[in-house]
Amino acid sequence: MTTEPGNCTASELLCVMSARALEDGQVVFAGVGIPLLAATLAQRMHAPGVTILFEGGTIGPHVVPGELPPTTNEQRCTRKANMLVSITEVLLLLQRGYVDVGFMGGAQIDQYGNLNSSFIGSADDPSVRLPGTGGGNDIASLTKMIVAMPQEKRRFVEKVDFVTSPGYLTGGTSRVDSGLVAGGMYRVVTDLAVLGFDDGTGRMKVLDLHPGVTAEQVQENTGFELSIGPDVGVTELPTDEELAALRHLDPDKVYIA
Amino acid sequence: MTQSYLDLRERTQARDRSLREKVMSLEEACEYINNGDHVALGGSTASRTSMAMLWALIRAKKRELSFSRSIVSTEGDLIFASGIGNHILTSWFSQGIIWGVSRVMRHYTENKLARFEEWSHMSIGLRYRAGAMGVPFMPMRSMMGSDVAGRLDNLKEMECPFTGEKIMLVPALNPDVALIHVQRCDSFGNAQLDGLTFMDIDIAMAANRVILTTERIISNDQIRRSPDQTKIPFFAVDAVVEVPYGSAPHECFGLYEPLFSHMDYYAELTRKDPAAGVNEYLEKFYYGPENWTEYLELIGLGDLLDAARRGRSIYDD
Prior knowledge:
The structure holds two protein chains of two kinds. Helices cover 23% and strands 23% of the residues of chain A. By secondary structure, chain A is an alpha/beta fold. Chain A has one domain (10-247): Glutaconate Coenzyme A-transferase, CATH 3.40.1080. Chain B has two domains: 5-122 and 173-315, 3-Layer(aba) Sandwich (Glutaconate Coenzyme A-transferase); 137-171, no CATH class. Chain B contains 13 helices and twelve strands. Chain B has helices at 5-13, 26-29, 51-59, 74-82, 103-110, 121-133, 147-150, 200-206, 220-225, 260-269, 274-287, 292-299, 301-312, and strands spanning 38-41, 65-68, 85-90, 115-118, 137-140, 156-159, 166-171, 177-185, 191-192, 210-217, 230-232, 239-242. In chain B, helix 4 (74-82) crosses helix 11.
């Protein structure tokens, strides 16, 4: 049963919608935060055969409800895992081609899906020094990407201040020309819509709106012009089952605050 | 750090690689670290951080150290604020996502008091790996096209001589010293690690000196009963220090999880006025106590027991 609008928070909506972007049987390299929680939710719902990889070196864990890890490097990430390897080995799985989807959050994204988690303002004299790439650059360089983040004008900018994790760079063939021959941005899931990328130009476009959201609303919360076709779809609201499973996983609201 | 191959070998050959006792105190182990050294830290984020050894280095007032680690958490704040080093090479630097961006890291980097040199996670791993392999570089397929690579001057793109593809080369990193915290080792330095090994084995084999801190020292007989569990060999190790809860307030797999209430306290203390907050923390927990036991007493038995209960719970199901 789908829930009533307003029965879930923006981050719960984001979590459910991004969980749905994963398919059963996929190998998913998940970052900390919403991706970790959403990949775990997908395992509990429609995609029990999702294999999660964490950059701390975990292959195929089942995170325990109520014991969400604070980063992807603690023992909580290893619960019911199939195998533990070194950080370098788990990242090399991306390069070797074992991973279907990289799944990350983002601080700032641009029209070509480039992500910035390093600097706000200029890199030489930033107004904010952010924590940096972590595995982000490697994941975005080496596999197909799903990004989950709230849709806000200050986060969706025409050009990121700094390309930490590459999307389609300056569009067209620029990504492949730079030497990144595999992978690329696939979906951006927000609290308003599901977005994809144009095959030729590499620019972001709206695929589906969440129920009750208008195309204008999405555009208003985006710092560049989005292509929104007449055939744009509508997602389904989270179901009661999805929300119950999500709240069971994160009862302390560590990630779904 | 990148050094000539023959020099690297010579430094290794010059180490006493015999099967010998090397148990000492934290203070004695500090003698193995010289001002100006490059120090690699084992573990990652809030896991198996060599906190007790860093605590001793800060108390010994070491200077001009540079550091590298896969991912840096609160220990990076303390390195900057204590003045033992103002240059950290890592891929990610903040306490942990649930505590937000580190105010202390921001204070030191935005005011140009210290340097956070950002490399991708895998590139750091491959730099240590090249160092451990005794080769000058490793090729890899990430970092290209990004501004992360654009800000670094010691990596190179090249055309693969076999396939003609574009490829990124990252140079070997052979740290002067590696600080690694483990669950157990013998008095010779044969180290057994449980759970995630992070980049520790490559770091140990790449470094010119290795200091192990360990939760407990076991006999060499025990090591020989399960040599398949030994991840770092004795001849790569120069010093062994037994330090229970040597990673606190970070975690040590299977023994204790992060001390969450202490981590929350630290985040709160450094939120408003990062410089004053971190200095208050150093005064209280680093310069105040007489020894490591007093440090643990200040953190508090309640927090330690809670973390230990959670840490050991993974063996309960």
